[in-house]
Every structure is written in C-alpha cells, then in structure tokens.
Amino acid sequence: MENLALIDSFSEFKDDKLIDRVTLMAILEDVFRNALKKKFGSDDNFDIIINPDKGDMEIWRRRVIVADDDLDLENEEITLTEARKIEPDFEIGEEVSEEVKLIDLGRRAILALRQNLISKIHEHDNTNLYKQFKDLIGDIYTAEVHHVRPRVVILVDDEGNEIVLPKEKQIPSDFFRKGDNVRGIIESVELKGNKPQIIMSRTSEKFLEKLFEQEIPEVFDGLIMVKNVVRIPGEKAKVAVDSYDDRIDPVGACVGMKGSRIHGIVRELGNENIDVINYTSNIQLYITRALSPAKVSSIKINEETKRAEVFLKLEEVSKAIGRGGHNIKLAGLLTGYELDVIREGNIAEEEDDVELTEFSDEIEAWVIEEFAKIGLDTARSILKQDVDDLVRRTDLEEETILDVMKILKEEFNS
C-alpha cells in the first residue's frame, strides 16, 4: 500500500490537467525508470508492474546470488548472506526478486521524482495542445480578452489556453477591452521552447473566407464557392464567388436582401467595404467586374507580362482607382493582372488640360496628393467632379476643394 499512497500523492493534480490515468501511469513508469537509472546505474534488472485500474504499481529488482567474498559486486548481483535474509533456502547462482518500496529511495529522490513527473505532464500537455491547435489552423476561433498590451492582445479560451493576437494581425479599427469576445482564425502554432504559442489573425483573407462559410448557408453547403478573396483590412475587400447551379445567383445569395447577409460580416470586420463579384474564366470580363463600380470601355491584355491596359472615360477613372487607390489595387490582386488605366476623353480638352502638379505654387503638395489618390491628376478631371462627392471621397474640407476649383477655373478663363 506504500506504493499506492505515493502514486496517489504524485497524481493528485491529474484531474486539473485533464490527463487520463493510463497516460499518467506510462509517464510514471518513465519517471521511475529514470530515477532507478540514476540511483543504480541501470534499470535493466527492474520490472515495473502498473495496474491502471487500481492506480497501483510495484517495482521488482532481479539479482543473481554470488559468494560473499565477491568484492566487485554489481547492480545485478547480491551476496548469498543478503539473499538468505529474503529466503533462507537460496543458493549461489539462483535469481532473487525483491520488491523495492518507493519510500526506500529516500525523501530527496521522491521530491525529484515529483518534480520530474510535473515536468513530464506539462510536456505531455504542451504536445497535445500543439497537435490540437495545429489541426485548427485556418479555422475560426473565439476567445476572451484577458490582457491588452501595446503590441499584442492576450486571449484565453474556455479551456484556459492562451492565444496571442499581435497588433499587425488586428484590423486597424479594432479596440478591445478585458472580457470582450474576439473572433479570428488560428493562423499558426509556433513552439517557443517547449510551450506552443497560438497566433490568431483578423487580417487574413482566410478569415473573411471563413466568415462567408459561417454566415452564408449556400457557401457552407458548397452550393456557392468562394474562388478568391483579397482585402485591405478595415478598408476594402473583394470576393469572387461562383455557383455550380445556374439557378443560384451567387452574388445575390451572398449579399442578401438589402445587404442583410453581408452586413454581419462587414460589422465584424470594422465596417470593411466588401465588393462581391461573379467569378468568370473570361479574363476581360473578370477584370471589368473587378473594377466595379467603374464602367470599363475596353481592355487590352498582355498574357506574357500579365498586364492589362484598361480604357476608361474620364469620369470613370476616379471610380476605377478608388479612394487611396484601393479599388484598382484589389482588382489587380483579385485577377492576377497589373492594371494600367488609360483615359479616354475629348481630344481637344485633353490637349488643353493641365497637370495638377503645374499648380504647386498655388496648391499645397499634400492637397495635390489627395486628389491623385482618387485618380484626379489634371485640372479638368477635378473641375468635372461634384464638390460633395469630392468631400466624401477625399480627406479634404469643402472650403479647400472650392479654393482649388477657383484656382483651376482661373487657368482656363484667363
């Protein structure tokens, strides 16, 4: 019963660690064999018998009987006198089996055993945790904010596992408080020493793809396929979808009546603007759809260089480029082509037009840059725009825009 009591004291924390008894016994055997090697030099002549049902174990030491005058006694040998203390009928050459009580190993050895056992169980837990989350890579996961730091948010799941959400994996508008529930995908699991570090991401294209699977039944059921996803986190995203069934409108199904289905996804991503387009293998049509809401006049494709010249009317250029150049950048990423915008317009007007940079003495450089971000880099291209529309699409005040337009009009009226 001494062994049983000791084992129970060693395994008192097994329930907290959620480790099964059989695994615990296997770890115990490994730990005890290491202790026997340390004390006796070898564990080859020791038998460890474990009963996982009872939680008991026995350690038996096998030794061959030698004469009392054998001075070079080894671990596997016992003198005749010592053997006869166990059983008086023993003779030289016979094998003796003697039970070893754990308490006989000494207090220091038992403390070392306990420490080694804790270490082995932690190692076992970490291995299982690493395997568990490796299988979850690419899946959506929810955890609670435990601690917010400048460069990272520490999350904890329902089982107490720690998950890391680095600043660069957060959407720019994300703001978390302790206790908030956070959704993201498990992006990677890295071993830091023996401890796995679980990394969550909210900026990955995979996160948006998985949100479509989670929120749109037809995507989850496989009736609609998400062919490609590109995004500038927190700003804009484009998602190409297709359907096996011609009766299903994949874009309509994803967006829903008045945007009802996509609204939840947009809200989850910090009001990220999501364009859903029909996928097609016709690259000209694909590029045309990708540049929505701009209306493309024509496209000239170079397959070798993976470049495409996109011809647009002057009033469509700024729509194609989008605020901050986001629309054309994402269209290029979605289609896999580098897109060059070619303006189509009134030849007389184009010849009479003036580059905006020519006004650098009267208009500040940062203002010129703001117009350039939405594809307006000439005087006439700005004068054709609606003031309210320019206020909405740039970071400029209405007064600033009106001042610029006044300067530009004077150029053509002079």
UniProtKB/TrEMBL annotation:
Location(s), subcellular: Cytoplasm
InterPro entries named among the record's database cross-references: KH_dom-like_a/b, KH_NusA_2nd, KH_sf_prok-type, NA-bd_OB-fold, NusA_N_sf, TF_NusA, TF_NusA_bacterial, TF_NusA_KH_1st
Transcription factor NusA first KH domain residues: 202-279
Annotated GO biological process: DNA-templated transcription termination; transcription antitermination
One matching Pfam family: NusA_N
CDD domains according to UniProt: KH-II_NusA_rpt1, KH-II_NusA_rpt2, S1_NusA
NusA-like second KH domain: residues covered: 284-346
Gene3D superfamilies in alphabetical order: 3.30.300.20, Nucleic acid-binding proteins (2.40.50.140), NusA, N-terminal domain (3.30.1480.10)
GO cellular component: cytosol
GO MF terms, alphabetically ordered: DNA-binding transcription factor activity; RNA binding
Key words of the record: Cytoplasm, RNA-binding, Transcription, Transcription antitermination, Transcription regulation, Transcription termination
Every Transcription factor NusA N-terminal domain range: 6-125
Transcription regulation recorded as keyword: yes
Subunit structure and binding partners: Monomer. Binds directly to the core enzyme of the DNA-dependent RNA polymerase and to nascent RNA.
Family: Belongs to the NusA family.
Stated role: Participates in both transcription termination and antitermination.
Protein name in UniProt: Transcription termination/antitermination protein NusA
Organism, as annotated: Flavobacterium noncentrifugens
